[in-house]
Amino acid sequence: MSKNYFSFIDESGNSSQERYFGLGLLVIDDEIGDFYDSMKSFYDKAKDVARAQKTARIADLTKKEEYEQIAEIAKSTRSFELKFKYINSTNNTIYSSLLDNYFKFPNVRFCALVIDRQKQNTKSSWAPVINPWETYILQASMLIANNIKNISPCNLCILADDLTRPSDIKKSFERSLADAIKYRLTKNKMPDTVFGVSRLESHSSLLLQVVDILLGAVMYDFKKSAGLISDKLSEKQEIVVDNLKQKLGTTSLAQNKTYHKPSYFSVWELSK
Q1: Residue 209: which CATH number?
Q2: Is residue 251 within a helix (H) or strand (E), and if so which, with residue range?
Q3: Residue 57: domain span
Q4: Residue 114's CB: how many other CB atoms inside 10 A?
Q5: Over the stretch 55-106, which tens digit does the pLDDT of each residue have?
Q6: Residue 137: exposure state from Cβ atoms within 10 A (0-12, 13-18, ≥19)
Protein backbone atom coordinates (compact mmCIF):
# COMPACT_ATOMS: atom_id res chain seq x y z
CA MET A 1 0.00 0.00 0.00
CA SER A 2 1.43 3.39 -1.00
CA LYS A 3 1.94 6.23 1.46
CA ASN A 4 1.72 9.98 1.02
CA TYR A 5 4.90 12.06 1.17
CA PHE A 6 5.77 15.73 0.88
CA SER A 7 9.04 16.85 -0.65
CA PHE A 8 10.56 20.32 -0.38
CA ILE A 9 13.26 21.36 -2.82
CA ASP A 10 15.51 24.41 -2.84
CA GLU A 11 18.50 25.51 -4.87
CA SER A 12 21.69 27.46 -4.18
CA GLY A 13 24.10 29.12 -6.59
CA ASN A 14 21.55 29.47 -9.37
CA SER A 15 23.55 32.26 -10.98
CA SER A 16 25.88 30.86 -13.64
CA GLN A 17 28.55 33.24 -12.29
CA GLU A 18 28.86 31.16 -9.11
CA ARG A 19 31.22 28.20 -9.03
CA TYR A 20 28.91 25.82 -7.13
CA PHE A 21 25.29 24.94 -7.84
CA GLY A 22 23.34 22.87 -5.34
CA LEU A 23 19.92 21.29 -4.90
CA GLY A 24 18.53 20.18 -1.57
CA LEU A 25 15.61 17.77 -1.22
CA LEU A 26 13.72 17.10 2.01
CA VAL A 27 11.24 14.21 2.00
CA ILE A 28 8.74 13.80 4.84
CA ASP A 29 5.84 11.40 5.29
CA ASP A 30 2.31 12.41 6.25
CA GLU A 31 3.39 13.03 9.87
CA ILE A 32 4.74 16.33 8.62
CA GLY A 33 2.87 18.32 11.28
CA ASP A 34 5.00 17.05 14.15
CA PHE A 35 8.18 18.00 12.29
CA TYR A 36 6.82 21.45 11.47
CA ASP A 37 5.73 22.15 15.04
CA SER A 38 9.15 21.14 16.37
CA MET A 39 10.89 23.57 14.01
CA LYS A 40 8.59 26.52 14.67
CA SER A 41 10.12 27.42 18.04
CA PHE A 42 13.54 27.95 16.45
CA TYR A 43 11.98 30.15 13.78
CA ASP A 44 10.33 32.22 16.52
CA LYS A 45 13.59 32.56 18.48
CA ALA A 46 15.57 33.65 15.43
CA LYS A 47 12.83 36.11 14.49
CA ASP A 48 12.92 37.65 17.98
CA VAL A 49 16.70 38.10 17.69
CA ALA A 50 16.31 39.74 14.26
CA ARG A 51 13.58 42.04 15.59
CA ALA A 52 15.74 43.08 18.54
CA GLN A 53 18.67 43.82 16.22
CA LYS A 54 16.44 45.91 13.98
CA THR A 55 15.09 47.88 16.94
CA ALA A 56 18.59 48.53 18.25
CA ARG A 57 19.73 49.62 14.80
CA ILE A 58 16.88 52.12 14.48
CA ALA A 59 17.58 53.48 17.97
CA ASP A 60 21.24 53.98 17.08
CA LEU A 61 20.37 55.72 13.81
CA THR A 62 17.91 57.95 15.64
CA LYS A 63 20.61 59.09 18.07
CA LYS A 64 22.84 59.91 15.12
CA GLU A 65 19.92 61.64 13.35
CA GLU A 66 20.48 59.51 10.26
CA TYR A 67 16.83 59.60 9.26
CA GLU A 68 17.35 58.66 5.62
CA GLN A 69 18.64 55.24 6.66
CA ILE A 70 15.67 54.82 9.00
CA ALA A 71 13.37 55.62 6.08
CA GLU A 72 15.09 52.93 3.98
CA ILE A 73 14.52 50.38 6.74
CA ALA A 74 10.86 51.37 6.88
CA LYS A 75 10.49 50.89 3.11
CA SER A 76 11.77 47.32 3.23
CA THR A 77 9.14 44.72 2.32
CA ARG A 78 11.34 41.69 2.95
CA SER A 79 9.67 39.08 5.13
CA PHE A 80 11.62 37.32 7.84
CA GLU A 81 12.87 33.84 7.07
CA LEU A 82 15.54 31.42 8.19
CA LYS A 83 18.41 31.20 5.71
CA PHE A 84 21.90 29.82 5.98
CA LYS A 85 23.37 33.08 4.67
CA TYR A 86 21.70 34.96 7.55
CA ILE A 87 23.61 33.00 10.19
CA ASN A 88 25.69 35.35 12.33
CA SER A 89 27.33 35.51 15.74
CA THR A 90 24.07 36.40 17.49
CA ASN A 91 21.87 33.62 16.10
CA ASN A 92 24.25 30.75 15.22
CA THR A 93 23.43 28.84 18.42
CA ILE A 94 19.74 28.89 17.43
CA TYR A 95 20.57 27.42 14.02
CA SER A 96 22.75 24.77 15.67
CA SER A 97 19.90 23.81 17.98
CA LEU A 98 17.58 23.59 14.98
CA LEU A 99 19.91 21.00 13.43
CA ASP A 100 19.99 19.08 16.72
CA ASN A 101 16.22 18.99 16.56
CA TYR A 102 16.23 17.87 12.91
CA PHE A 103 18.01 14.66 13.84
CA LYS A 104 15.32 13.75 16.36
CA PHE A 105 13.21 12.64 13.37
CA PRO A 106 14.77 9.43 11.99
CA ASN A 107 12.21 9.04 9.20
CA VAL A 108 12.97 12.39 7.58
CA ARG A 109 15.23 12.19 4.51
CA PHE A 110 17.55 14.84 3.09
CA CYS A 111 19.64 14.66 -0.05
CA ALA A 112 21.94 17.30 -1.55
CA LEU A 113 23.24 17.34 -5.10
CA VAL A 114 26.21 19.61 -5.81
CA ILE A 115 27.70 20.64 -9.14
CA ASP A 116 31.13 22.23 -9.40
CA ARG A 117 30.88 24.33 -12.55
CA GLN A 118 34.66 24.51 -12.77
CA LYS A 119 34.93 20.72 -13.00
CA GLN A 120 32.10 20.56 -15.53
CA ASN A 121 33.85 23.02 -17.83
CA THR A 122 36.25 21.36 -20.26
CA LYS A 123 38.17 24.60 -20.82
CA SER A 124 41.47 25.18 -19.03
CA SER A 125 40.13 28.22 -17.18
CA TRP A 126 36.75 28.53 -15.54
CA ALA A 127 34.00 30.41 -17.32
CA PRO A 128 30.24 30.44 -16.66
CA VAL A 129 28.69 27.19 -17.84
CA ILE A 130 25.49 25.23 -17.33
CA ASN A 131 22.15 26.89 -18.00
CA PRO A 132 20.51 27.41 -14.56
CA TRP A 133 16.93 26.60 -15.68
CA GLU A 134 17.85 23.44 -17.59
CA THR A 135 20.20 22.34 -14.82
CA TYR A 136 17.52 22.78 -12.19
CA ILE A 137 14.84 20.84 -14.08
CA LEU A 138 17.13 18.00 -15.17
CA GLN A 139 18.92 17.51 -11.87
CA ALA A 140 15.85 18.04 -9.68
CA SER A 141 13.95 15.40 -11.64
CA MET A 142 16.84 12.98 -11.25
CA LEU A 143 17.18 13.72 -7.54
CA ILE A 144 13.47 13.22 -6.91
CA ALA A 145 13.21 10.06 -9.04
CA ASN A 146 16.15 8.48 -7.23
CA ASN A 147 14.65 9.26 -3.83
CA ILE A 148 11.24 7.92 -4.82
CA LYS A 149 12.97 4.67 -5.75
CA ASN A 150 14.27 4.34 -2.20
CA ILE A 151 10.88 4.76 -0.54
CA SER A 152 8.57 3.30 -3.20
CA PRO A 153 5.67 2.85 -3.25
CA CYS A 154 4.71 6.42 -2.39
CA ASN A 155 2.51 9.26 -3.54
CA LEU A 156 4.51 12.46 -3.69
CA CYS A 157 3.65 16.16 -3.57
CA ILE A 158 6.55 18.42 -4.56
CA LEU A 159 6.84 21.94 -3.15
CA ALA A 160 9.69 23.96 -4.62
CA ASP A 161 11.20 27.34 -3.90
CA ASP A 162 10.03 29.86 -6.47
CA LEU A 163 12.12 29.87 -9.63
CA THR A 164 11.71 32.53 -12.31
CA ARG A 165 10.94 31.09 -15.72
CA PRO A 166 13.12 32.44 -18.55
CA SER A 167 11.22 34.45 -21.17
CA ASP A 168 12.08 31.96 -23.92
CA ILE A 169 10.56 29.01 -21.99
CA LYS A 170 6.84 28.53 -22.67
CA LYS A 171 6.09 25.58 -20.40
CA SER A 172 5.48 26.36 -16.72
CA PHE A 173 7.93 25.30 -14.03
CA GLU A 174 5.37 22.90 -12.58
CA ARG A 175 4.71 21.18 -15.92
CA SER A 176 8.41 21.18 -16.85
CA LEU A 177 9.42 19.46 -13.62
CA ALA A 178 6.47 17.03 -13.63
CA ASP A 179 7.22 15.96 -17.21
CA ALA A 180 10.94 15.55 -16.44
CA ILE A 181 10.16 13.39 -13.39
CA LYS A 182 7.71 11.27 -15.37
CA TYR A 183 10.39 10.68 -18.00
CA ARG A 184 12.88 9.61 -15.33
CA LEU A 185 10.40 7.28 -13.66
CA THR A 186 9.33 5.72 -16.95
CA LYS A 187 12.97 5.19 -17.87
CA ASN A 188 13.47 3.39 -14.55
CA LYS A 189 10.27 1.36 -15.10
CA MET A 190 8.59 2.95 -12.09
CA PRO A 191 5.03 4.27 -11.82
CA ASP A 192 4.45 8.02 -11.88
CA THR A 193 3.15 8.65 -8.36
CA VAL A 194 3.76 12.42 -8.28
CA PHE A 195 0.33 13.96 -7.72
CA GLY A 196 1.29 17.61 -7.42
CA VAL A 197 4.05 20.13 -8.12
CA SER A 198 3.93 23.75 -7.00
CA ARG A 199 6.22 26.69 -6.37
CA LEU A 200 6.21 28.56 -3.07
CA GLU A 201 7.88 31.73 -1.87
CA SER A 202 10.49 30.57 0.63
CA HIS A 203 9.36 33.05 3.29
CA SER A 204 5.94 31.35 3.29
CA SER A 205 7.29 27.86 3.98
CA LEU A 206 9.26 27.04 7.12
CA LEU A 207 10.24 23.65 5.72
CA LEU A 208 11.72 25.19 2.57
CA GLN A 209 13.78 27.29 4.96
CA VAL A 210 14.98 24.13 6.72
CA VAL A 211 16.13 22.83 3.32
CA ASP A 212 18.02 26.08 2.75
CA ILE A 213 19.90 25.61 6.04
CA LEU A 214 20.81 21.97 5.37
CA LEU A 215 21.86 22.67 1.80
CA GLY A 216 23.71 25.80 2.86
CA ALA A 217 25.82 23.80 5.31
CA VAL A 218 26.79 21.32 2.58
CA MET A 219 27.59 24.09 0.12
CA TYR A 220 29.65 25.85 2.80
CA ASP A 221 31.95 22.85 3.14
CA PHE A 222 32.39 22.54 -0.64
CA LYS A 223 33.25 26.23 -0.86
CA LYS A 224 35.59 25.95 2.12
CA SER A 225 37.45 23.07 0.47
CA ALA A 226 37.98 25.38 -2.54
CA GLY A 227 39.21 28.27 -0.38
CA LEU A 228 36.10 30.38 -0.98
CA ILE A 229 35.11 30.98 2.67
CA SER A 230 36.53 34.06 4.39
CA ASP A 231 37.72 34.01 8.00
CA LYS A 232 35.01 36.53 8.88
CA LEU A 233 32.28 34.29 7.49
CA SER A 234 33.82 31.24 9.12
CA GLU A 235 33.61 32.86 12.54
CA LYS A 236 29.84 33.22 12.12
CA GLN A 237 28.84 29.99 10.40
CA GLU A 238 31.46 27.38 11.26
CA ILE A 239 29.75 26.46 14.53
CA VAL A 240 26.61 25.40 12.67
CA VAL A 241 28.45 23.36 10.04
CA ASP A 242 30.67 21.71 12.65
CA ASN A 243 27.61 20.73 14.66
CA LEU A 244 26.08 19.07 11.60
CA LYS A 245 29.29 17.18 10.86
CA GLN A 246 29.49 16.03 14.47
CA LYS A 247 25.95 14.69 14.29
CA LEU A 248 26.84 12.70 11.18
CA GLY A 249 30.21 11.58 12.53
CA THR A 250 32.22 13.05 9.65
CA THR A 251 34.99 15.59 9.21
CA SER A 252 33.70 16.89 5.86
CA LEU A 253 30.39 17.30 4.07
CA ALA A 254 32.18 17.90 0.76
CA GLN A 255 32.21 14.26 -0.31
CA ASN A 256 29.92 11.69 -1.87
CA LYS A 257 28.47 9.88 1.10
CA THR A 258 25.16 8.67 2.49
CA TYR A 259 24.51 8.60 6.21
CA HIS A 260 21.65 6.46 7.55
CA LYS A 261 21.87 7.55 11.18
CA PRO A 262 20.66 9.47 13.09
CA SER A 263 18.57 10.42 10.03
CA TYR A 264 19.02 9.77 6.31
CA PHE A 265 21.39 12.40 4.92
CA SER A 266 23.01 12.06 1.52
CA VAL A 267 25.51 14.22 -0.37
CA TRP A 268 26.21 13.66 -4.02
CA GLU A 269 28.61 15.67 -6.16
CA LEU A 270 27.69 15.29 -9.81
CA SER A 271 30.57 14.08 -11.97
CA LYS A 272 30.84 14.58 -15.73
Answers
A1: 3.30.420.10
A2: none
A3: 42-79
A4: 24
A5: 999 999 999 899 899 898 888 888 899 999 999 999 999 999 999 999 999 9
A6: buried
